[in-house]
Amino acid sequence: MDLVGIDHPLSQETYGLLADKFQLDRSQIAIGTSHTHTGPVVGQNLSALHYRLVSPQQQALIDQNAKKFPVEVVNVVEQAIDRLAPSQLTCGSGAATFAVNRRNNREQDVATSCGRPTRRSIRPRCARVGGARCVGTVVTAVVFEYACHSTVLSFYQRSGDYPGFAQLELKSLHPGCLALFFADCGADQNPLPRRSVELAQHYGRRLCDAVDGVLLTSNMKPVATSLTTNYRKIDLPLDSPPDRAQIERDAQSDNKYVVTRAKMLLEQLGQGVSLSQSYPYPIGTWTLGGDVQFITLGGEVVVDYALRLKSGLSGTKTWVAAYANDVIAYIPSRRVLHEGGCEGGDAMLYYGLPAIWAPAVENAIVDEVHQ
């Protein structure tokens, strides 16, 4: 979906409808989002950014959209099931290189030194590609992923950002093809330079070229049709929450988002609900043909997870889709948590969570994926 994310209540409602209508097990369902920043507010996702900060009229539109959302998803799934046809599955890996580690590259510097060796980055260069062909030669669907924030654009017009332009390019090259994008672990990766439609189109073309280059070469290997699915939630630990006195002080802050989160937490305490010590974190795995692994992780996951999981599993045959099922908050590695900053904990504010993650977060997620 071309959305910045999805919240837990809305995803649960959607899963329930899908399971009831199509007799699907929870492990057979994955909701992926492109994390485009030029999409609408959806339900309670990023609640502290809009909770009681928008007008009543805007809130009514947000609520109306959230109410329609699960039904629209069910309708799309029904259309897809009605169009099932024999297909040949293939999988491959290519390279796109426009993602930049935003934690050690300032936007204003990269804008003037783009392409020079001064850019420092920890990033996967791979773009994963999965394709389906009708029995014959026509490409009917392509699924691809890349680890980079969908933040080229920052205006108030609706757009799929660079992944959306990549999808449009792929569909023009392969008429009748359905192009789907999954966001890899790019929470600390940005497209730089950025801030123009021309650059979004440019990065979209570059990603399309990487994907199409794999589709048209021998890099695409057949995938057997066996499928094993698993899904679990783990109690991902949060650090110690603030006490009521601290929350009341935050409610007097000059920062409107600090105030908003404080009011949300005070309302929760006023209802007799204790602040959370953990979060039910979703992890899904699909194994195709015995060796192609597709992992779905909730939240805005930093690139360290993709690098660690792929090195410990099947390498280029391991896909890691972040921003999936429940976009809770940023999910830092132990390194990023220790370093701090936006991804390390500061951005927890915008998701309304009471505290940063505990140091055990990385190993808890990786261990569960291996389980």
What is the strand content? 15-25%
Gap between N and C termini: 28 Å
Average pLDDT over all residues: 89
Coarse morphology = globular
User: Total number of helical segments?
Assistant: 12
The tally of strands reads 13
Low-confidence stretches: 114-124
Largest sheet: 5 strands, mixed
Number of domains: 3
What strand order characterises the main sheet? 5-4-3-1-7
Structural class: alpha/beta
Helical content band: 25-40%
Strand and helix order: HHEEHEEHEEHEEHHEEEHEEHHHH
What value does the Rg take, in angstroms?
A: 21 Å
Describe the structure in your own words.
This protein has 371 residues and is α/β, with parallel strands linked by helices. The chain has three domains: 8-82, no CATH class; 87-222, no CATH class; 227-370, no CATH class. The protein contains twelve helices and 13 strands. The strands form four sheets. A five-stranded mixed sheet has the order 5-4-3-1-7. A four-stranded mixed sheet has the order 8-9-10-12, covered by helices on one side. A two-stranded antiparallel sheet has the order 2-6. Strand 3 (126-134) and strand 4 (139-146) form a beta hairpin. The longest helix is centred in the first third of the chain and has 27 residues, at 56-82. It starts with 7 loop residues before the first helix and ends with a helix. Residues 114-124 have low confidence and may be disordered.
